[in-house]
Amino acid sequence: MTRLGIFGGSFDPPHRGHLRVAQSALLQLELDRLLWIPAFHSPFKSLSDTTNTSDRKEMVRLMTLEDPKFELDLRELHRKGPSYTVDTLESLRQEEPDAELYLILGGDSLAELSTWKRADRIREICQVVAYQRLNDSHEVLLDAALCDRVLSGDPIELSSSAIRDAVSKKFPIDRMVTGAVAKYIEAHGLYLQN
Fold first, then answer.
1. With b meaning 16 or more CB within 10 Å and e meaning fewer, what string describes 17-50?
2. Under 8 Å CB-to-CB from 173, ≥6 apart: which residues?
3. Residue 178 located in a structural domain
4. Which residues contact 178 (CB under 8 A, 6 or more apart)?
5. Which CATH number goes with the domain that contains 47?
6. What does the DSSP assignment read for 111-138?
C-alpha cells in the first residue's frame, strides 16, 4: 500500500524549515512519496499579499529536487480560486483509492483545522500529522484531538514572513532557504518591497 504525504501551503517562499519537516515526514512516516502542493490562494490570506503563482511554483520545484521522493503537485494552482484542503484530498483519494494519506500541518494550522471547510471529512480521508512550530507544545498538539501523530524533532523557528522581511531589508537569507531558492529570489527581485 502506498504511503503518501501531503504538504501544502503558500510556500512564499519555501524555506529550510519546510525542507526539514518534509524530510522528517518521509523518514518517520515511512512515506513512499511526499507531494508539495502550493496553494493558489489560501482562504486565510489576501490574494494581493501572495507572490505570483509562477514564482512560488518554481521555488517549490527547486525544493523538490532535494529528494527523489518529493514531487511537485500543481492541482491547486490549476484549480485556481481558494485552495480548500478537502477538495485536494478528495481528488487524491479518487486518484489513489488504496493509498494511506498523511496530511502534514504546522501547529498553527492544526489549531485552525476545525474552522476549515469540511474539517470532519478531512479527518475521514487522511491521518493528520503535525510538526511543532517554535511556540507549540508537543502535548498540546496531541491533545487537540485533531492530530493523529506529531513528528519528532526540534521545533521549526523559520517563517516565510521573516524571510520576506529579511530580503526587503537586504539581510542575508542563505541560512533560511536553500541555495537554489536564494538564487531564484535574488535573480527575480522577489520580496524587495515587502
1. bbbbbbbbbbebbebebbbbbbbbbbeeeeeeeb
2. 163, 166, 167, 182, 185
3. no
4. 16, 19, 62, 63, 66
5. 3.40.50.620
6. HHGGGSTTHHHHHHHSEEEEE-BTT--H
* pLDDT > 80? residue 145: no
Distance, first Cα to last Cα, the chain: 44
190 part of a folded domain: no
Q: Whose CA is closest to 44, among 106, 115, 130?
A: 115
Show the domain range for 68: 3-157
Q: With respect to residue 145, please indicate whether it lies within any of the assigned structural domains.
A: yes
How many domains, in total, are found in the chain?
A: 1
Q: 28, 129 in Cβ contact below 8 A?
A: no
- pLDDT digit string, tens, across residues 18-27: 999 999 999 9
Residue 127 lies in a domain: yes
Is the C-alpha dihedral spanning 171, 172, 177, 181 positive or negative? positive
Phi, psi (degrees; rounded to nearest 5) at 108: -65, -40
Taking the C-alpha atoms of residue 2 and residue 48, their distance in angstroms, rounded to an integer, is 37
